[in-house]
Amino acid sequence: MKRFIAIVCHLAEQNLAFRGHNSTRHEPNNGNFLGLVELLAEFDPVMSEHVRPAEKKEIADHCMGKTIQNELITLIGDKILEAITERVKQSGYYSVIMDCTPDAAHTEQLSATLHIVTGQINVGAAVSEHFVRFLPVLDITGADLTDVFLTHIEKLGLDISKCRGQAYDNGSNTRSKNSRVRKRVLDINKKSTVHAMRQPQPKPSHCRRCKINSGVSLQLEYQVLMQKVQLPDVGNALLSLIEHATQKGDSETTSAARGLEQEIMSWKFLLTAIIWYNVLHEVNHVSKLLQSSQVGIDVLQRKVENVLKFLKEYSENNLSSAQTDARDIAEESGIPMVFPTTQVRKPKHQFQYETQSTDPSLTVALEEQYKREVFLPLVDSAITGISECFKLMESFYSLFGFIYGSEEMKNATQSHTLKDSCVSMERTLDDVDAEDLLHKVSAAVSALPAKETTGLQILSYIYSNNLVELYPNLTIALRLMLTVPATVASGERSFSRLKLIKTHLRTTMLQEHLSALAQISIEHEITRLLD
To answer: How far apart are CA 494 and CA 503, in angstroms?
Structure first.
């Protein structure tokens, strides 16, 4: 039986189908499960001894049928769920990450992930996220999504009052402040801090006058940025395409290629590509942080603040630096460093005095026009996206900001705001004692090593050195802060597994099998620890 379980876990971890076109042993296309059983039987005497009587029909009950496969999948999924539930109960607090997407059968699947902080004496502390399962929803309204989630939490035996955070994608049915999942969960548990952050993605479409940021031109611009494609090579390829299309008499391709070649081999395209590269290079640091379940909001807020500061400074005086970078590439590529001019329609004048007043926009230099219509809207769109992320952290910072790290603890002690912060936390969460927290934070400022700078590092130091009894309320406060997730990337990653498991060839898969296969695949580390 252990060998069959190992085969099930292996196939599920690799997101492979179990059955093929037939279920006859020693036949082609009989599926991955039977194929692995036959392979093991050739070398393993135990498996061979089990397969031989079944092949000779000496026994009717064996472990190679589809029913046994489905039962094993379900049992392993249940064991993984039990292990996850036990970890969540031991951690004391948890947060929920939810997101929705339709599957290949057009069934709306609600992905539920739990975010917890675990601590072991003499070992340390760690942040972990565990996929619970996919929950089918018939209606994507806030009430239905909330009922589905709460029903499942109750089945798991978890206390909704221990939920200390909510993280949703940008869907209005989950994230809306008024009548959706966010508000309904808050009505049940006032302590469930809401935080929902996606990867900041400044969109070129926000810049309505950036005419080059559309269609194929935008795709080529990103290729120039991310893949270091040389502009002369792109231009030569387009010229070859134009020549080939002209010989074939394909006027449509010729016209499109010629227009694209003129567009990308222009000073405006090159300068805009350089600007986008500088903006996205800074935003990329935050995006990478948001892909990790280990990142805390304390670390993330510092990074977002630095990126926001850079973008604001960049919008004020960094157009000239972008021009300097673009000038070197333009000289190498033979691109004229001039902005394209457009013919301006001259208005008709019926009286002589009308010629004395001219349109101010006609006298503005082309560089200033580019800055006003392209550069500033482009950078402002990035600032707007980052600012929205930063606003989500303000309420969180007002509650936990004084324990973000050793530097924040020191500043709160020196500025005499520590007492107010401790009282505010006790009043809001009622999980800590303000007076004891005040004394422990003051003592920790001088006692903690200088290298322990972030909240997670401080908490890990307390656990690894068996100091939990010395700093009980500080430990609770740090656990509460780190329990709130900083990102919803786990939900997005579960959708990737969903698309690999439930393909258009497996649309009739039962919901319990889908969730069990997803759990085995996503929580493979727990799967390997099961006895």
So the answer is: 14
